[in-house]
From TrEMBL:
GO terms for cellular component: plasma membrane. It is found in: Cell membrane. This is Iron complex transport system permease protein. Gene3D superfamilies: ABC transporter involved in vitamin B12 uptake, BtuC (1.10.3470.10). Pfam families: FecCD. The keyword Nucleotide-binding does not apply. Keywords: Cell membrane, Membrane, Transmembrane, Transmembrane helix, Transport. Its main location: membrane. It is a multi-pass membrane protein. InterPro entries: ABC_BtuC-like (IPR037294), ABC_transptr_permease_BtuC (IPR000522). Belongs to the binding-protein-dependent transport system permease family. FecCD subfamily. GO terms for molecular function: transmembrane transporter activity. SUPFAM superfamilies: ABC transporter involved in vitamin B12 uptake, BtuC.
Amino acid sequence: MPAAVPNARLVVATGLVGLFALSLCIGVDDMSLDRIGTNAGALQLLLVSRLPRTVAVVLTGAGLAIAGLVLQILVRNRFVEPITTGTGQSAALGVLAVTLLFPTASIGAKTLAASATALAGTSIFLAIAHKLPPTQPFLIPLFGLVYGGVIGAAVTFIAWQTDLLQYVDVWTNGEFSGVLRGRYELLWILAAMVALAWWVADRLTIASMGREVSVGLGLDYQRIVQLGLVMVAVISSLAVVVVGMIPFVGLVVPNLVSRLMGDNLKSALPWVAVTGATLLLACDIIGRVIRYPYEIPVGTVLGVVGSGLFLWILFGRTQRA
């Protein structure tokens, strides 16, 4: 296993670079180097559409993977992620509320509202999850699915009553076709959240041992939990506001990386971000080429790829046991 880790790192890093370059070339218009150098329109298309989209995919994939990892640490359960704990649905509820009350609100205002509702929704989930019996680990993800489903149903009902179902559909089906320069820059906050998670990685590792052990080791457990909740809420709300809800990245990527690199959070965390970006970029490319020149939303592609990876993780865990 140790010998496989450097090889896996090389494959992931090389794959991310290669997929990044490939993503810039995929589209109806020709984006060859010769044409970019001689055609001002091609260069403009690259800078306004192709490059922002690719950067947005990388930032979103890295951020969602880190959000899933932090949430799994806070809940102390490997089978949760923001979409299956009501965080994404709570963020959508916040966006819907702002849209109804302040139709002309900016993306920044929608993000703030989505972050507040995502934080509240995740806090409620975490409070209830800690009361569930730790000997039944599958109760937490099952409760999360029900909890998120209830919030999602409320969002759908309100949208149906206010004739905003098509608007809500944009948030529930993650896709990057509408990402352009000027509409994705808020996603750079995700990079700051990734850096923050790496900075507090040691404290998150201690927090994963539980409240009693954390307090005994001198950690302010409540504060680190609050910081983790803020990171998860901000990442999830930004993703929902800009590109919509994207499943499975925060669920499968931390589990895949932990299989190869163990639970040393400080060293594994950057590779969780890189692997999340690589997985999302690969699925985005698949969605763009499988029905070219039309697109399949990346959330749909990840629903297939992610479920397959998750089943592989479950069966692999069972076989080792």
